[in-house]
Design brief:
The complex is a heterodimer. Chain A is built from no helices and 11 strands. Chain A is mostly beta strands. In chain A, the strands form 2 sheets. In chain A, strands 2, 4, 5, 6, 9, 10 and 11 form a 7-stranded mixed sheet that branches. By secondary structure, chain B is mainly beta. Helix content of chain B is 0%, strand content 55%. In chain B, strands 2, 4, 5, 9, 10 and 11 form a 6-stranded mixed sheet that branches. A 5-stranded antiparallel sheet of chain B has the order 1-3-8-7-6, with no helix packed on it. Classes of the chains: A mainly beta, B mainly beta. Chains A and B meet through strand 9 and strand 10 of A and strand 4 and strand 5 of B.
Chain lengths: 121, 110
């Protein structure tokens, strides 16, 4: 259980174009999904929190108009990198929050998708 | 002071031995604690989570949490070469956002 998929796994695009990345929770419903970016030899950096049916919450320093997030259903969130530039080249990873435990003591675990490697030329 | 600290390693352990990975955190309000494994070029994989003080065992993995000392550890018994990876410690508070350590690179020597 708790499988998260991402598509595409790799994408190469030209500078100035836009790229859409999809994140799906395959066997559970995720009201909350997260988008991360990871540069080589660095830790994951949270970009935004995506809640189903509402606007995403962006971390400080992340441009919301450049990184458009849509969470239209309980199993799908999308990240669109608009007007991509070479400095946007990175490994983009989504995660979905799964809820377990009892109603009084719920617990939340985040499961990560396989990531999307974006290269902007 | 970083919110979540890990020894960056590399930590080298002979095959079959116990690997011990440590993590400290600064926010006493931290509620949930996670260990992720990340192979080079891949995304993190959740291997253990723990919420209460004490030990939690799952197969060859044991997570240990000491909230008084703000310390969480991961023990890997009977280490295998396939365990060679970067291990990320992560904690959440009431916000549910994961705060990651920088990771410990573990190498299992055959």
């Amino acid at each position: 259980g708790a499988v998260v998929s991402q598509h595409p796994s790799r994408v190469i695009c030209k500078s100035g174009t836009s790229v859409k990345i999809e994140c799906r929770s395959l066997d559970f419903q995720a009201t909350t999904m997260f988008w991360y970016r990871q540069f080589p030899k660095q830790s994951l950096m949270l970009m935004a929190t995506s809640n189903e049916g509402s606007k995403a919450t962006y971390e400080q320093g992340v441009e919301k108009d450049k990184f458009l997030i849509n969470h239209a259903s309980l199993t799908l969130s999308t990240l669109t990198v608009t007007s991509a530039h070479p400095e946007d080249s990175s490994f983009y990873i989504c995660s979905a929050r799964s809820t377990s435990g009892s109603p009084l003591t719920p617990s939340y675990e985040q499961y990560f998708g396989p990531g999307t490697r974006l290269t902007v030329t | 002071q970083k919110e979540v600290e890990q020894n960056s390693g590399p930590l080298s352990v002979p095959e079959g031995a116990i690997a011990s990975l440590n993590c400290t955190y600064s926010d006493r309000g931290s509620q949930s604690f996670f260990w992720y494994r990340q192979y080079s070029g891949k995304s993190p994989e959740l291997i253990m989570f723990i919420y209460s003080n004490g030990d939690k065992e799952d197969g060859r993995f044991t997570a240990q949490l000491n909230k008084a000392s703000q310390y969480v550890s991961l023990l890997i018994r009977d280490s295998q070469p396939s365990d060679s990876a970067t291990y990320l410690c992560a904690v959440t508070t009431w916000t549910e956002k994961l705060t990651f350590g920088t990771g410990t690179r573990l190498t299992i020597i055959p």
